[in-house]
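Two proteins follow. First one:
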Amino acid sequence: MTVLYAIARYLGVAGCFCLLLLWHYEGIPGAAKLKFPEGWPIVGGFGLVDVPLIGDLTVGKVESYAAEQVRITKATMVSAFEYEALSAQFDKERDLRLKGSLALEEYRKRADAALSAEQSDNDRMEQEIADYEAKLADANRCRITPDLRRWLQSK
């Protein structure tokens, strides 16, 4: 104690005040790295920083502010990375949906074209059968029976 009193007398009031301010802002050097041994009851594995009031005094304002800023930055970076990942996934799903709708539209066009081609073939065949019936009727030949009609349609 006498050593501390001698240092305080040597530094004076202004020097002691400067040391207190330095301790307040910078903390005790290396105090953040001190940990209690694992075998100690209750406090084992904790450090001076983990004790509420002592932790604030030993770490200092600069390091606690920096630690707080690191925590905030990490939180915002995680949310930014999550946002980028979700945005990429959303873009991929939108592209897949667009490609699917284009493929569906193309399929519908082809199906409509095939249906209209089949309908025109049926109309053409019906016209040929009607022309053939008219030709046979003009020649006074046999009339087309339903069996003969089915046979002609199958050709």
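Second one, unrelated to the first:
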Amino acid sequence: MDSKKTSKTDVKMGLAFAAFAALALEESLRMPVYDDVYTAPGLFPAFLSFCIIAMSLGLVFWGRRKSKLQAEGAVEVSHEEAAVMVVERKRLFLAIGLILLYCFVFLGHINYTLATFLFLVLSMSFFKATKIHWIVIISALASLGISYLFGKIFLIPLP
């Protein structure tokens, strides 16, 4: 993998994420404020959008800095590092695929608790988090805990 191409991709993706987060920030600030600014429903999305903007701009800065260092010949990527980057990219795309499967297939057709359990089992198995019996136990406890917490205590309906 060409390291110069990677640094340009960092800049492009950082700008794209920053633009998307800026739109989300704008929309969250448009949400109505009822009693106090601290109880506004758009406060937390605004905070998250601001954090994503900051991290995206950091990625842009890092990509530009890396491009300048490469132009000066200060950064070289070995074959081993390039092979690791290829493996990491495959893992990234598979993780994105799992998230898309969860959001657009599981959540639309099966119960939220079961969908979350399946997603957690698949993702932890893929990343080899621990032994399979611990993966099943952790996934079951997490999905049941989230469902109970939001459904019974917070009274927030889940999809």
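SUMMARY FIELD: The first helix runs from residue 3 to 30. The chain has two domains: 1-76, 78-159.
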